[in-house]
Design goal:
The protein is built from five helices and five strands. It is an alpha/beta fold. The protein has a domain of 79 residues. The protein has a five-stranded mixed β-sheet, with helices on one face. The N and C termini lie far apart (182 Å).
Length: 232
């Protein structure tokens, strides 16, 4: 019995000699021994499928299955009719939006034209000229019944006389009703205060002319000069 080259090859046995058919009554013992000792004919070679060598796997396994390449994916089918319909829809929508905008602008322009133009803002009125203060003349007489407010402001020192004989005195601005004024000496205001209190109720600013700081200074200086002259 002989075995093939591979383990998986089928076992083929040699055909045993049919001694029963070859033997006869006249076969001698020597012929019988020769038939037994005759060499066994070699079996015909069998055709076997060669086994492919194992494929080495880089990840460690000795063999790896051979996977056939995948078939390429089919190309997508483009529906040209759908593309054309979408482009047409976008164009129509754009045209409709432009038409609505033009209609809206025309309505706004028509409404603006129908409304009357707003009146032009009048120029700012010219400022009313303030009534200038009117000074009283030196010969005029003050009537207490003709005014209700008197204020004493703006004291000024004046000088009279020549170079060798000169005298200085103070004058004040008496403002009447905030529009008229007169400039008088302080002693004139002292005389006027009594008449004003008799004719109309009210007060004079400052409250009492004889308490004015400048007048007090003037009186104090005169008193000191008199005392100094008497002491000499």
């Amino acid at each position: 019995m002989m075995s093939g080259e591979g383990d998986d090859a089928p076992v083929v046995g040699a055909p045993a000699p049919n001694l029963a058919t070859n033997l006869s009554d006249s076969t001698t013992e020597d012929e019988l021994l020769g038939m037994i000792n005759a060499p066994t004919p070699a079996p015909a070679p069998t055709q076997t499928t060669p086994t492919p060598p194992p494929v080495s796997d880089p990840f460690g396994s000795s063999t790896a299955p051979i996977v056939p390449p995948a078939a390429p994916a089919p190309a997508p089918v483009v529906n040209q009719n759908a593309v054309n319909a979408q482009a047409k829809f976008l164009e129509e929508r754009k045209a409709m939006q432009a038409k609505l905008k033009a209609k809206k602008d025309a309505a706004a322009a028509k409404k603006a034209a129908s409304q009357p133009a707003p009146p032009v803002a009048a120029a700012s009125a010219a400022p009313t000229p303030q009534k200038k203060s009117k000074p009283f003349g030196e010969g005029e007489t003050l009537h207490p019944s003709s005014f209700k407010s008197v204020s004493v402001t703006d004291p000024q020192q004046r000088k009279e006389g020549g170079y060798f004989s000169s005298s200085t005195y103070w004058v004040y601005k008496f403002v009447i009703n905030e529009s008229n004024f007169v400039i008088r000496r302080f002693r004139d205001m002292v005389a006027l205060e009594g008449r004003l209190h008799e004719s109309c109720p009210g007060c004079i600013l400052p409250p009492s002319p004889d308490k004015h700081k400048l007048r007090m200074m003037e009186e104090g200086t005169a008193a000191q000069s008199l005392e100094f002259a008497q002491g000499r």
